[in-house]
Amino acid sequence: MTDTVAQLREALGDAVSTDAAQLDAMRSDKSGHSSGSAPLAVVHARSIDDVQATMRIATQTRTPVVTRGAGTGLAGGAIAGSGEIVLSTLAMDRVLEINESDLLAVVEPGILNGRFNEILAEQGLWFAPDPASKAISTVGGNIATNAGGLLCAKYGVTRDAVLGLKVVLPDGRLLTLGHRSVKGVTGLDLTALMAGSEGLLGIIVEATVRIRREVAGTLATIASFYPGVRDAAAASAAITAAGLQPAVMELIDPSVLRAIDAFVGSSLAQRGNAHLAVQFDGPGAAEDAHRALEIITGRGGDADMTTDRDEAEKLLAIRRAAHPSLEALGTTLIEDVSVPRTALPDMFDAIAAIEKKFGITIPTLAHAGDGNLHPNFIFDGPDVPDEVWAAADELFLAALKLGGTLTGEHGIGILKKRWLGDELGEDQLDLQRQIKQVFDPLGILNPGKVF
Amino acid sequence: MTDTVAQLREALGDAVSTDAAQLDAMRSDKSGHSSGSAPLAVVHARSIDDVQATMRIATQTRTPVVTRGAGTGLAGGAIAGSGEIVLSTLAMDRVLEINESDLLAVVEPGILNGRFNEILAEQGLWFAPDPASKAISTVGGNIATNAGGLLCAKYGVTRDAVLGLKVVLPDGRLLTLGHRSVKGVTGLDLTALMAGSEGLLGIIVEATVRIRREVAGTLATIASFYPGVRDAAAASAAITAAGLQPAVMELIDPSVLRAIDAFVGSSLAQRGNAHLAVQFDGPGAAEDAHRALEIITGRGGDADMTTDRDEAEKLLAIRRAAHPSLEALGTTLIEDVSVPRTALPDMFDAIAAIEKKFGITIPTLAHAGDGNLHPNFIFDGPDVPDEVWAAADELFLAALKLGGTLTGEHGIGILKKRWLGDELGEDQLDLQRQIKQVFDPLGILNPGKVF
Prior knowledge:
Two copies of one chain form a homodimer.
Chain A: H1 3-12, E1 16-17, H2 20-25, E2 41-44, H3 48-61, E3 65-68, E4 85-88, E5 95-99, E6 104-107, H4 113-121, E7 125-126, H5 139-144, H6 152-155, E8 162-168, E9 174-178, H7 190-194, E10 203-210, E11 212-213, E12 220-226, H8 229-241, E13 248-252, H9 254-264, E14 274-280, H10 285-298, E15 302-306, H11 309-320, H12 322-327, E16 331-334, H13 344-358, E17 364-367, E18 372-379, H14 386-401, H15 417-424, H16 426-439
Parallel strand pairs in A: 2-4, 3-4
Antiparallel strand pairs in A: 1-2, 5-6, 6-10, 7-11, 8-9, 8-10, 12-14, 12-15, 13-14, 13-17, 16-18, 17-18
């Protein structure tokens, strides 16, 4: 037992674990990547005090700290390795306040997004950030990655829902950022800066978030099938071009559709090669859905529509089955490029060209409403083959050329570090590193990630 | 002519002005405050190149630079004084791109918000940030102050509408921040950090912003009168408590109402002492307005409602007349506290107590939908009397106690510097100063403002 672990134990008692299985679990996340070896210890923080105590010891002993929620990240941002402390905020999972009149809630970081929404739903309320992982990912993790999801085009990204944060700095000091009011412009917006900072700047220990009232009116949902992925992409573009604003618009390409059929035993591919799910909410939902349906069928799409909520869940279940279906095929590297929504067909063309060049299949999903694509690379074994990295390289550069970004919602973590400079440029990268240094002068927070 | 001015002239020719009247105009803004003396020169930048050239000279000669748009700020953030260069971006006023399919536009910083919206309206589009000053304030200034306005509760603050920025650093280097896609989480979110940074970090020279399609459906507008300001505040609270989401909800207190009557010759105060304007948009607007009307009349409010757009403009014109009406009474110090919306009645009580204690009247307007209040101090002469500062001090501390903030939408500038530490705390203030230093190591950008 190292001196650091001894100090942690003395300060935090049985919140500190060095159980081999637990340490081993900290080496990986949902990215499919692993660190070379296990971390020193896991601290299961139960309170802000625990987090502060951990960070004071980490600073004193110069020990690196990896903050971790549920470990569902897709970019390796919460992977821990040799000599590191894992600071888990998963046990800090209370909802401290739900204020219906001010439409805000105060939560600890470890609450699962889905669980938080269940609690809110009892009062007819909801939290808009809606990553596909919401059943298993924490609100703290959602904020640390500025998580996206299905509803962003209409309801914004996680950052837009965060009013204030309590953050512990590397040396253990507690900061209170932001406010409880809708508006507030006092000083630099460090609350916004923390959103998406991937554990580099501080540890989020409490969040004051905007909540919403459940949207009144019908929920109208369309599931539609097309001959090819470009037809589906063109239909989605035509829907937004008609001035419609779906809450959800999700596209599935042919190889993902076949994977779903194989995994769940369905026969979706008999109806078409590509799938587009479109959902409208609010008072105009049914009318909007009828207009979308006309656009879809006018373009040769084969579509079902429902205003029944259970039936809608069944239609969207096709999309939700995509990730497990792909995981069943091998190790999955889920990419996450984002482009302006009209560039979606061009990006699909670029993916097709890369598939051809490298002789591989890149099953792709897209949040079509906001131009965020998830091309998947599937391979055997734990390590990403060089060829896959080479193909991913071309994919990223294609997205940047189209005015897009390396990562729409998953983050940089360890997975996309090598391309960071391509997007940011050296001047901005340097500035970002200096900002990191202001928060974390010793460089003990999530070292080796992002930069 | 100083050496700095000579260098500017050599590099920028007739973009540089030392005209006494022009320099004098740079000493003040709409805050009612002035600097002690005139700045060195005004550079009327026509291009990014001009901005870069100016900053290279400023860095070389260690000359402070105050970036300025239309000079409509209410906190003194763009006031310039002795030895400073004013870098005006007002002439950089082109709309470079309007992309209806991607719902984004690229603009230069000097375009007026209102003019930009006129251009967008020709295509059935709009830019949601809606400060009351939109006819005279620039989009660059709106971003630099993270401007609020009437629509924030429903449509967000300016930050939420900014996708990407081009920014010139103090040493003249050009950075490209953000992206054209709806989502993007590559590195730290410096785009969000620039919003509301009040000219401290860099010069915004181009902005890629989200635009929206005009909201379909009826616009339903209510003008209502009440016996007192608490009744109006309670009615607004009851409307949001009923689950309704107005686009606009504006409250006017008795002394502002009387000032409007005196200024425009109306007799509004005959119908009541306090006024609440409520506007709904979208497909459910008329239905929502009828529900709001029931709530208002059930509480003894005296209300008119219209679904005619011209008639609606007339009803909202009452609110728009407030600022000129108050300015007619004397020098006006417009305050800008923001509290959680349910704390609005408590904040009005706090204001009443301060009025009583100091024997003064504090005419107050409020964006009731989001809890942002504008208490106004009116006095003779250019200088704020000590008694007004003392009263303002109590006002700010009352807002902070209610979970609010010193400034909801105007910024800190020079006006609220002394209270900054009260809200942020010393640790955060220190961190913010260090971030400023990363961007501006020589401290030449807007020195003496905010921090």
